[in-house]
Specification:
Length: 501
């Protein structure tokens, strides 16, 4: 890999509603952000990874009231649960933003003032439906049996004064940006979905304030109104970018539920104040659990804290991204997780590391011997190919493809052991044995670096056994074959993934 300039890379996740505790869907997006951030760090980018919580609005106020506590006290509690969970999964965000943060409140007020100065806001009346579950204005045609299908609740009927944003003025600009990928929407199917929405109908002005919702940021020039929670929330990305001049965002991550907010309203708001739109949006699919929709009423919601009582965090991190492509829908099941653990982790990865390090201990006192000419039938192009796919797939957020390439190399290394039978060489051919063991321990070093974004604990654990510190790394050096030094003393350690019944 060539040396290159240090580029800024600003990644965001949605900021999650705090009406309820975090679940596996929230974890999924946030882990994707962490994996992407770690990859970009590894290639030398200056990464800023933002996540946080969306705390205002009617829905949160309603839940807090039911619990009999002040909204801020309630949001403090739930927001802390999200933070704690991210720490448990070793998700390293650079900022955890809360829409109740004071800097955010003032950036939102400034943003709104700018929209008004530029004459993109006017006062009118909103008459229509509003689902508090999605915090979204609804059309009668979107209801099923009079209810919001996503939240199974009857929407509120509103007739109230409100401020409106003149969205339709940005229609053709948005279409151009999206068509020429200046605002890149991935996967392609989501880009087409947004384009057909934009091209298929007249856009309407968007109500951006509420009259009777007190838990929110006041409209700066009219204290009788608060800012619509989605407008408040979208601006979080801009708040976090401000201090460090990070705008535009390089990558907004989310699921398909909130595509239009991010690809229509948000870029239009930015264009209106003379700012750049985000560079790209990546939309992933939805989880089902054992084939059914995850929902509270079905009682099948997976709490990511519970998973950690059964497996180390790396197991969950990698499983979620190996199980199905990022971008499509996928299913989660405990059976598949167990199978994955015993198969790909215990039998394949864990076994490879344990076999190689044990042989090094037994046959060479744990000392790596590097011979000048080292071949012994090991196909180094397999390693280079894996690096190539690793890099290309992580650039494109094809996490499963990157993992497949890593596992193909693990399989190749295991096969190389079986073919060469080092235990026989130990009796007859010591010289070749040294070469074979070097190839194996060196391939493990490569594998651990490839695994680093996905499985940071495991990767660091292996690297430690190889006495390799990559904190002051240069990836192109690390990717060179033969980087593991002659004379390195390895430590064996426990099995990485003991088999389970
Ligand atoms: N607060 C808004 C987002 C504002 S961003 C400016 C919101 N919050 S949310 O808590 O409902 O989170 C929605 C996001 O959580 C989805 O876009 C996705 O990232 C994640 N997921 C929630 N449920 C999910 C699944 N069942 N499957 C996959 N991801 C899911 O919308």
């Amino acid at each position: 890999m060539e040396e290159r300039l240090r580029l800024k890379y600003f990644i965001t996740t949605p900021i999650y509603y705090v009406n309820d505790v975090p679940h596996i869907g929230h974890l999924y997006t946030t882990l994707a952000g962490d994996i992407l951030a770690r990859y970009h760090e590894l290639i030398g980018d200056e990464v800023f990874f933002l996540t946080g919580t969306d705390e205002h609005g009617a829905k949160i106020a309603e839940v807090a009231e039911k619990k009999g506590i002040e909204p801020k006290e309630f949001t403090d509690q739930i927001s802390a649960l999200f933070k704690a969970l991210w720490n448990k999964y070793d998700i390293r965000y650079d900022r955890f933003i809360r829409t109740t943060d004071t800097d955010h409140e003032s950036v939102v007020a400034d943003f709104l003032n700018k929209l008004k100065e530029k004459d993109f806001i006017y006062k009118g009346e909103y008459r229509g439906l509003y689902c508090r579950g999605c915090e979204t204005y609804k059309k009668p045609s979107e209801l099923v049996n009079g209810k919001c299908p996503d939240h199974n609740r009857v929407p509120d009927e509103l007739a109230e004064p409100a401020y409106f944003f003149k969205l339709p003025q940005f229609k053709s600009q948005l279409i151009d940006l999206i068509k020429n990928d200046a605002l890149l929407i991935q996967p392609e199917i989501r880009k087409n979905e947004v384009l057909s929405f934009l091209e298929g109908q007249e856009l309407e002005d968007v109500a951006i304030s509420r009259q009777n919702v007190h838990w929110g940021i006041p409209v700066p020039w009219d204290e009788s109104q608060t800012i619509y929670v989605w407008v408040d929330a979208l601006i979080n990305y801009y708040t976090a970018a401000k201090e460090k001049s990070l705008w535009p965002a390089d990558m907004h991550l989310m699921a398909k539920d909130i595509l239009r907010f991010h690809c229509v309203i948000w870029p239009a708001m930015l264009l209106a104040i003379g700012e750049k739109p985000p560079k790209s949006v990546f939309v992933h699919g939805y989880f089902t659990i054992d084939g059914t929709k995850m929902s509270k009423s079905l009682g099948n919601v997976i709490n990511p804290n519970d998973l950690l009582t059964e497996y180390p965090r790396d197991v969950i991190r990698v499983f979620l991204f190996k199980a199905f492509p990022f971008g499509g829908d996928g299913d989660f099941s405990q059976d598949l997780l167990r199978e994955f653990y015993n198969g790909q982790l215990a039998n394949e990865l864990g076994n490879l590391v344990q076999r190689v390090l044990t042989m090094l201990k037994n046959y060479q006192n744990g000392v790596v011997i590097k011979q000048s000419e080292s071949d012994s039938g090991f196909d180094i192009s397999k390693v280079n190919d894996a690096w190539k796919i690793w890099g290309e797939s992580l650039q494109k957020l094809q996490f499963d493809i990157g993992l497949k390439a890593i596992w193909a190399l693990i399989k190749y290394a295991n096969q190389y052991i079986d073919d060469n039978k080092p235990w026989e060489m130990a009796k007859t051919d010591k010289e070749n044995l040294q070469v074979v063991l070097y190839n194996l321990v060196e391939v493990i070093r490569h594998l651990s670096i490839m695994l680093l974004p996905y499985m940071p604990d495991t990767a660091q654990n292996i690297l430690k056994r190889l006495q390799t510190d990559i904190s002051d790394h240069n990836l192109s050096e690390l990717q060179k074959w033969g980087n593991l030094k002659d004379g390195t003393e390895i430590s064996l350690g426990e099995a990485l993934f003991p088999r389970r019944g």
